[in-house]
Structure formats: structure tokens, C-alpha cells
Amino acid sequence: MEKKLRVGVLFGGKSKEHEVSIWSAKNIVESLDATKYDVLPLALTKANRLVTAGGNALEQIRIGGQKVITQQCVLLKEEQDSINLGVLADLGLDVVLPVMHGDFGEDGRLQGFLDLLGIPYAGSGVLASAISMDKVVQKQLCVGMDVPMVRWTFCLRDEWEGQSDTVLARVLAVCGYPCFVKPANTGSSVGISKVDSPEDLDAAMETAFLYDDKVIIEQGLDRPREIEVALLAGPDGLRAAVSMAEVHPSAGFYDFDAKYQPNSTTTAKIPAVLSPDQHRIFQELALRVASLHTIYGLCRVDFFLDHDGKIYWNELNALPGFTENSAFGKMWAQDGLSQQEVLEWLIQSALERSAHQNILHHEA
Fold first, then answer.
1. Under CATH, which number does the domain 133-146+223-354 receive?
2. What is the rounded average pLDDT of the residues 14-40?
3. Could you count the other beta carbons within 10 Å of the beta carbon of residue 209?
4. Residue 45 near residue 69, CB atoms below 8 Å
């Protein structure tokens, strides 16, 4: 009998998206083929300490939070309540599926750590992950590359605290109102506010600065259609799902609650109803943006479609949500690729990348 691959599913961590990561990990663990893989769920506490979850611990973690993670460990000695992340090197892992959304998990730091340990992992590498985490750097990368965007500007904490009047004037001149204020380095719509007038900007900026030292401000559109494109990227290049998603937020915009709260009425129509030209343009732009970001493994590229037919790129997510309700998996399922098959593809592409990197010369 062929030996099973040992797959570590790494989730949790100190990111603002800790709980979202748990929901994604639960879905992934349940979707992996147990006849092919020896699956080891690896939970990081909010202090970034590693514990391992066994049995039905994932469901309990999701409900009970960090205390339950500590109680449900299976590899710890009795005198320990957590272990250092470096123990990953001793677990005999063939590949890791990083499911740590947000900072520390999808911003390149974890990817660099796994590279140092020599453990293959799914998803983008250090550079692409770091670029994709920062909304300002994403925009700067695509300026002048035939990627249509709404008007935008950004502000650092020091400028806001010392020259808020200058920032207010710039936002009015560049973006106008309504606009959206976002922390530059968060995902899952954490810390985002819609601002309808200059009087409301101060509160929105303060909210965003709770999560990051850099804030991006973007022109608001009047109830645009929100279109998402799922992509896979491997040794043979990029491919985009034919089926796209149109998101209908339960609130005025697609904020954290609209995405993840149990009582959310947000829906996604898959496939989105688009003209042939619109579909072609969305695919071409998604592939261009993902290529500019040097994406590997997977990503989701999000767009706006205005009432006048204009298309605007919104952002790229290098580690899209993988919960049972996430659009990423549903888009591929609509194309005939099950979630189990997507995960198998990601594992195989991770192993192929690692094998290629091992034959590269690292000495002069």
C-alpha cells in the first residue's frame, strides 16, 4: 500500500482573522481524502504558540475559542500548554496547507519560515504573499499596467496625526465622497468603513488605524456589481475559473459581518450573469493582475462593475476564504472541480514547486 502523505493544516494565529482561519481549516480538514492523506490539524493560539487539535477539536475550537485549543492538544507533554512553532520540523510533514488568514499568516512571514525549515507548502511564496497583503503596494504595482482602478490615495499614521487637514483635503480632491477607508494590511474586510461626508472621515480613519499604521482611501461607487474570479496557479501557469461569482452583500457593502456572521443574508450568484465581452475582460484582467503579483497556488481577484458598464479592479486575495460558504470553492465546483480535487491540486503543485527549488543552485 502506498504511504499516505502527511499534510499539516496550519491555522489560527494572532491575526485579526483568527476565527475566519478556524472556519476555513475545519472545512479543509473535512474535505481532504483520508485514504490519501494523514491529516494533522495544527492550531496556533493568538500568542502564535502551536498546539495540535485531535478528534472533534476543530468544531470545539470554533465554538469555544483559544482556551479550548489549549485543552484539545494531543502532542504536548503534561507540563506544557503550548509549544514553539519550530517543532514543525520534527513532525514529519510532507506538505503544509497554510490557512492563516491575515497578517503573520498570509503576508510572507510564515512562508519564509516554512522555506527555512524546508517544508513544502501550498500557495504563494514570500514575495507574492507580502505584496498581496498590502492594498497600497497592490495598487502601486498595477499602476500603468492597463488595470482600471477607482481613484485612491493613502495615509500613514504620522501624517494623519500631524497633518490631518492635509489628508482631508487630499481625500476630497482625489476620491470625493462617498469613499471607503481601509487598513492597508488586513483581509476579510476588517476595519473598513464607508464614509459619506468629510465629517465622518475622522472616525473612519481612527477605526482603520486600530488595525494598521497605513490606511488606503478609495473612491466609492454607487452600488456597483461585485464580481469575483477564482484562479489556480501552478507549474503550467495560471488558469481562471470559467464560472465567476457575483456577491450580493446583506449590508450596504461587503464588510466582515456580511461575509462571516451566521445571520448574514449575503448571497453569491454563481455563475454571475455577464455578457461575453464582460466575461472575457474579467478573465483577462484577473490573469494580468495575478501574473503581476507572481501568484502561485491560488488566489481570488475581485472587481466592481459600475452601472455604466465600466470595470474596476478592487483587490487580489492570495489566500481566499476556504469556509464551507466561501465563493472560491463554489466557483471551481460550478466548473466541475470539487473542493477535494482543488486541495489535491494545491498539494501536488506545492510538491512540484519544492522539487524544482531543490534542483536550483544556491551557491556561486
1. 3.30.470.20
2. 89
3. 19
4. yes
